[in-house]
Specification:
heterodimer, A: alpha+beta, 6-stranded mixed beta sheet, 34% strand, B: mainly alpha, two-stranded antiparallel ribbon, 71% helix
Chain lengths: 366, 303
């Protein structure tokens, strides 16, 4: 097992820079998820760590050694692909042992490793089947088994759950987490699904346009996003953004959304934003769970307001409500008993203790 | 006591004109009509060959119905199969075809793998070039090739013209480009992740080819093998030009040159020879038909 470091890594395809100088340190045993939209460079980064893509500039280190020119087979890594990439003419056992057989491991050793991995992944009964006789979830387990038996320094996962249906994805997510808890191998995992990123990762790396937007634990990214991109990418439904400005009213700091709608900031927030210019164009960032139905005894910092709902989405344990503020669609989460109906007014409240203010131009969270 | 009547007729619905099933029925009828027409068209010559091969010389030259045998005889078969000359042609053909197929596969498969997978500078152009060479007809090539081998013989003293093994150098010019092209297509249909997984597992390029690509692409490989065998077995122009001595001839040329004497055509034996000559490819097709079709349609749909 080993740590992985990327130093100013660049990948260019002719004129296009797919990865634009990223720095990343992944500690031994750590589970790091690279997440971002399509084309953000996350898969390219993973493939460069694997050695399947040459790097145009910078250094990649595995276990302290620069591996820029080391071929994939000598990097001591194992990779799980989106489409499983199982060898169709081999049985499950042959698939799992292929790497070990190439390296001329003793037969007894191969057998014990395959048996152990199969037991861990609960595929012992499938060991003599061919891939075409397996379901998607079983194939993905075999692909993981093939990685585990090699006992590599680093596991690389390239969107391994994208081909599975929603239910199976949740199940396999838990499996992957369990496997990592057992083997503790350093893992780099690529996904475009922020839920996967949040649930699996020790640390999440959010990428956009070939650069790292923010690195942090799932909670850090959720509660303290550094940019508008991270704030909007992490969390489902996404954070709401409403254009606003700051104003001083009677010695208190207000955030004004529309001519008729403004809120007094709670003292902690007011102190934090006091120094900001009153003329700056800002965005109020608020997560849906901080827009809820108004209660008779509001807590400090929770400000009530009236809204006319455009659409409601009953989810069972909660109802998502959508309304428009200053041309921006806002989503809130209310209790199923709050009486929310399409097209009807509802008294809502916003929890400003959990608000974010963003610079509308730069997208930076202030 | 009340009685109850049940209306069993239910709502009636006429099948609309032009519905799916009606269109389908007509499409099927037309398909079968044209398939039958085509079958008659392509089976008539072999049928005529069979009829003629079962006739004696007298019956062939008599003014009787050419589509019927009045006195069937196996005389032509006995004569050919006991003739050393005919067996010689047969063995020459077999040797040439088997060796050419081997040479072709040894060149085409690694070439196709390299062109399909090992992205090197100019590989795409080279792949197109391989196919373009196949488009040059042999009728254009045989004179320069003959000249080349003649000059080679003059310079080195190694005489290749009028030896059956000269065909081992010539046939691959037909089979290698086409087989390479088929295999490029087949290898290209194998997901890229499969060789990446093999490379990460520690396989070299050669191991990836032999342990992953060849087993996975076996139907394509068999299709290419059948093609190479058929081309070698049925080739006429090159052996006609390059071989002249009776003991060096292959079957297609041997039948024509020995059974047509001046303006005398030994039709019975010619037809028998042609039928016997057509047998090996037919047998091979029959056994490997499923693989052949799978090979030709590979990559058409997501497998």
């Amino acid at each position: 097992m080993a740590d992985v470091s990327l130093r100013k890594v660049v990948k260019r395809y002719d004129e296009v820079e797919a990865v634009r100088g990223i720095d990343l340190d992944i500690a031994d045993h750590e589970f790091v998820v690279l997440v971002g939209p399509s084309g953000c460079g996350k898969s390219t980064t993973l493939r460069m760590i694997a050695g399947l893509e040459d790097i145009s500039d910078g250094d990649i280190m595995i276990g302290g050694d620069v591996v820029n020119d080391v071929p994939p087979k000598d990097r001591d890594i194992a990779m799980v692909f989106q489409n499983y990439a199982l060898y169709p003419h081999m049985t499950v056992a042959e698939n799992m042992s292929f790497g070990l057989r190439l390296k001329h491991y003793p037969k007894a050793e191969i057998k014990s490793r395959v048996t152990e991995a199969a037991r861990m992944l609960d595929i012992t009964d499938l060991i003599d089947r061919k891939p075409k006789q397996l379901s998607g979830g079983q194939r993905q387990r075999v692909a993981m088994g093939r990685a585990i038996v090699r006992n590599p320094k680093v596991f690389l996962f390239d969107e391994p759950l994208s081909n599975l249906d929603a239910k199976l994805r949740v199940q396999m997510r838990i499996e992957i987490k369990k496997v990592h808890q057992k083997v503790r191998t350093t893992t780099v995992y690529v996904t475009h699904d922020q839920v996967e990123a949040m649930t699996l990762a020790d640390r999440v790396v959010v990428m956009n346009h070939g650069k790292i937007e923010q690195i942090g634990t799932p909670n850090e990214l959720y509660h303290k996003p550094a940019t508008k991109f991270v704030a909007s990418f992490i969390g489902s439904p996404a954070m709401n953004f409403v254009p606003c400005r700051l104003e001083d009213v009677g010695g208190k700091l207000n955030v004004r959304l529309t001519d008729r709608l403004g809120f007094t900031l709670p003292p902690a927030r007011a102190a934090r934003y006091q120094a900001l210019s009153r003329t700056d164009k800002l965005l109020l960032g608020i997560r849906p769970e901080h827009v809820m139905e108004a209660r008779p005894h509001a807590e400090p910092g929770v400000e009530p307001f009236d809204a006319v709902l455009d659409v409601t989405e009953p989810m069972g344990m909660e109802t998502l409500v959508y309304f428009t503020l200053e041309g921006s669609q806002v989503c809130g989460r209310v209790s199923p008993n709050a009486g929310a109906q399409d097209g009807s007014p509802l008294r809502l409240a916003v929890d400003l203790n959990n608000m974010h203010l963003l610079n509308e131009v730069t997208g930076a969270v202030l | 006591m009340s009685t109850m009547t049940i209306d069993k007729s239910g709502p009636t619905r006429k099948v609309k004109y032009g519905s799916m099933s009606r269109d389908r029925t007509w499409a099927l009828r037309w398909s079968y009509f044209f398939l039958t027409l085509f079958a008659i068209f392509s089976l008539t010559p072999p049928f005529y060959m069979l009829i003629t091969s079962l006739k004696g010389s007298a019956e062939i030259s008599a003014a009787t119905n050419p589509w019927w045998v009045h006195q069937p005889t196996l005389e032509n078969y006995v004569q050919l199969l006991t003739s050393n000359q005919f067996l010689r042609f047969f063995w020459n053909s077999a040797w040439v075809s088997i060796i050419v197929v081997t040479i072709t596969m040894l060149i085409s498969v690694p070439a196709a793998f390299a062109l399909a997978r090992m992205k090197f500078w100019g590989s795409a152009t080279l792949a197109t070039g391989v196919f373009l060479t196949y488009l040059i007809p042999d009728s254009l090539l045989f004179i320069p090739l003959f000249k080349m081998f003649a000059v080679f013989g003059d310079w080195t003293g190694i005489q290749l013209v009028n030896r059956w093994y000269v065909l081992l150098f010539i046939y691959p010019t037909l089979t290698v480009p086409f087989c390479t092209w088929i295999m490029i297509g087949y290898f290209a249909s194998i997901p890229k992740e499969l060789d990446e997984a093999a490379i990460i597992d520690g396989a070299s390029w050669f191991q990836t080819l032999t342990r992953i690509f060849i087993p996975v692409a076996l139907p394509g490989l068999i299709a290419a093998t059948i093609f190479a065998f058929t081309v070698s077995w049925a080739q006429f122009l090159y052996p006609l030009v390059f071989t002249t001595s009776t003991d060096q001839l292959v079957l297609p040329v041997g039948i024509i040159t020995t059974l047509i004497k001046g303006d005398v055509f030994n039709w019975g034996q010619i037809m028998t020879g042609a039928l016997l000559g057509a047998a090996p490819p037919l047998i091979i097709y029959a056994f490997l038909m499923d693989y052949y079709i799978a090979g030709l349609t590979a990559g058409a749909t997501k497998g």
